[in-house]
Design a protein that fits this description.
Layout: E1 7-10, E2 23-27, E3 33-35, E4 37-40, E5 45-48, E6 68-70, E7 75-79, E8 128-132, H1 159-171, E9 177-181, H2 191-201, E10 205-207, H3 217-226, E11 230-234, H4 240-247, H5 252-265, E12 270-276, H6 284-293, E13 298-303, H7 318-334, E14 338-342, H8 347-358, E15 369-370, E16 373-377, E17 382-384, E18 394-395, H9 401-407, H10 409-415, H11 422-425, H12 437-444, H13 455-459
Parallel strand pairs: 1-2, 8-9, 8-16, 9-10, 10-11, 11-12, 12-13, 13-14, 15-16
Antiparallel strand pairs: 2-7, 3-6, 4-5, 16-17, 17-18
Bound molecules: iron/sulfur cluster (SF4).
Length: 468
Amino acid sequence: MVTTPRTLLNTPEGDRRIECDDRLLVRIDGDPTHALGLDATDKPLSISLPGTQGFLPSVNQQRAPLGTRWNNDSAFRFHRAMARPHHDDDTTGGHPGGSPHTDTSGHPGTSSTGGHPGGRDYSTAPLIVTWETTQACGLSCDHCRAEATPDRHPDELTTEEATALFEEIASFDPQPILVLSGGDPLERPDLFELLETAVDIGVTPSVTPATTSALTHEVIDRFAEIGVGRMAVSLDGASARAHDGFRGEEGTFETAIDAAKYAREVGLSIQVNTTVTAETVDELPKIADRAARLDAAMWEVFFLVPIGRGEELAQLSPERTHEVMEWLYRRSQSAPYRVITVEAPFYRRVAKRIADEEGIGSGRVGSTGAGNGFVFVSHTGEVYPSGFLPESAGNVREQSLPELYQDAPIMEALRDRTSFEGPCGNCPMTETCGGSRSRAYAVTGSPFASDPLCPWAQTGETGASRTR
Ligand code: SF4
């Protein structure tokens, strides 16, 4: 049984409402107990107990999966951060092997100043902060952005520096999602302490562990006990042969599947991360099915940016990318999980076209861009618009993260879409898409150039010129 610094309450059957402090540890007793749902408003926290139906009405809702079965030792920690509005573009923003998975797929209506109709102004607060806890990793995957190494860097942020970073993240208004990525976060001996600290500060962390033998059931139990928001596992193939072959490591598929299944058993939300290359693209339909069977909350589909070890891998052509996106959008309409793309914001254009012309779905997909809703903090505290865009805005050891995110020239320039060049600068979709700034940088050396993977940019047929 985990302990809580504030209030510990058991929930005898029959109790329907518990007045609480802004932090609450709930232990659900009974044998067996079905927690039908959990519904959190800011304060007090309301809990639907066994025997109740559905959920109490609430704008801010956090729910346990319907039918989740808790045993006597099951414990859940809820805190005020979990009562934040659930963002439809929520992502753990990273996956084992070091790709921090900037969600650049775009929230509908993202403006040049970073706002969107949902009221979130990306010029003042990001939606996602990914902190690369370490570059150390026991794996050496071919597509690794971080070019992870076996050993930790001696100048990594310390536990104390990370705590200060979490407090700065908590000071954003509204508060972002925090992702602890790597390398392999499990290489940090203080990982659990870091996660607990983040929870105590009020920032719900997600985590992207590498699928090594260190990712045990005991580790996943701790994630669940601490209150980790989500755990990501990478699947780049739907079979051991395909996945392990791509990763260059035997056993990683089995570890990923086992970890994902066990996480769901203990009530921990999971997402599946997949890297799309010429080698993995044919696996996508089977991975989509597998993610459903694993009860994933999200499938994050990352379109390779040729940096790090990923430079050696074969990318898709713009035409094939377009086909894949059309398939992905249609597949997403029947998926029991949310689908987001990473480093492929023209997915928004694909989705909008299909929605407008074929009436399929709303066409609303994706979220953020580099420095525009997303920010990446490296293992040594350097702040980048994206983990794939190595133009530093400064270091959190010298300036606060809010200052760097809001005011650093590179961040401001990336939110100002009038600075974009070529087809992306003259495209009617610039405001909602804008192209992958990371890929533009990787291929051309300029983060303001056009995205070379965009089919419209390649043909020059972007449509009517944008009006500024
Ligand atoms: S040209 Fe650029 S802004 Fe236009 S759809 Fe392509 S990537 Fe997006």
